[in-house]
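Please fill in the sequence for the structure shown.

STRUCTURE ENCODING:
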């Protein structure tokens, strides 16, 4: 893979407070292209944190996992898109009309121009197993449920999915070449797993069909975050 392409494929999850997030952003500027702002940072700091990252030249993956009635989700997606976020998550479990409303809301933020905020769906959270699904009355196998929600997302105009590297190949097959397939649970060979269990290396995730990989602590917790990021880019250039 070309170096410029590799840089575009790695999303750095900055799961920390504002000060550290901005410090990391300043360090990674000129190296990383994407940052992921999750719920914790967003709820603490609000839309301003997304704008600050955008002003520093980053694309922002705003991981808010929206799930409410379609009217609310339309409004939330529009507001989220107005921060300049490039990628926004919603829950597939909100069903078709809610997913279509999210895409509508993101489109409305473009004020008649082409939509610039892509919307991707979480299918089944990786923290949920068969037993957890059964506890909320879902009896189909996890993989079948993930397939169903991914198809539903795609049928409702959603741009892709978030999934584990283990599901990436199946999602790519199901959704086709143009879809976004974004995978967390990525660890460079030798990196600490933290609380992640089923992991893949960056090049394995891309080879499985991921369009983008999300990597947090192996970069943000490293003594040299830029070095850790560059090592991932180098791995992708060499192996993907
Ligand atoms: O630090 P780490 O690389 O584990 O960070 C992964 C990021 O991806 C975190 O922001 C986490 O919330 C997110 N994520 C995940 N697994 C999922 C969905 C999201 O690790 N199934």
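FILLED IN BY: designer on duty
SEQUENCE:
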């Amino acid at each position: 893979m070309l170096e410029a392409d590799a840089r575009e494929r790695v999303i750095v999850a900055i799961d920390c407070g504002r000060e550290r997030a901005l410090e990391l952003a300043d360090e990674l500027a000129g190296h990383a292209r994407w940052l992921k702002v999750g719920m914790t940072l967003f709820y603490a700091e609000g839309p301003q944190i997304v704008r600050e990252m955008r002003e520093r030249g980053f694309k922002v993956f705003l991981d808010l996992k929206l799930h409410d009635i379609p009217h609310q989700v339309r409004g939330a997606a529009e507001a989220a898109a107005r921060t300049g976020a490039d990628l926004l998550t919603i829950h597939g479990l909100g069903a078709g009309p809610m997913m279509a409303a999210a895409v509508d809301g993101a489109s409305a933020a473009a004020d008649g121009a082409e939509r610039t905020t892509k919307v991707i769906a979480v299918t089944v959270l990786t923290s949920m197993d068969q037993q957890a699904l059964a506890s909320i009355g879902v009896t189909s196998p996890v993989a079948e449920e993930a397939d169903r929600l991914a198809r539903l997302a795609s049928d409702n105009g959603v741009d892709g999915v978030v999934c584990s590297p283990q599901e990436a190949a199946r999602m790519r097959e199901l959704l086709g070449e143009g879809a976004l397939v974004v995978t967390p649970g990525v660890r460079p060979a030798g990196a600490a797993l933290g609380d992640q269990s089923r992991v893949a290396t960056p090049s394995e995730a891309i080879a499985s069909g991921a369009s983008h990989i999300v990597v947090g602590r192996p970069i943000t917790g490293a003594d040299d975050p830029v070095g850790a990021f560059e090592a991932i880019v180098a791995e992708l250039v060499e192996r993907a």
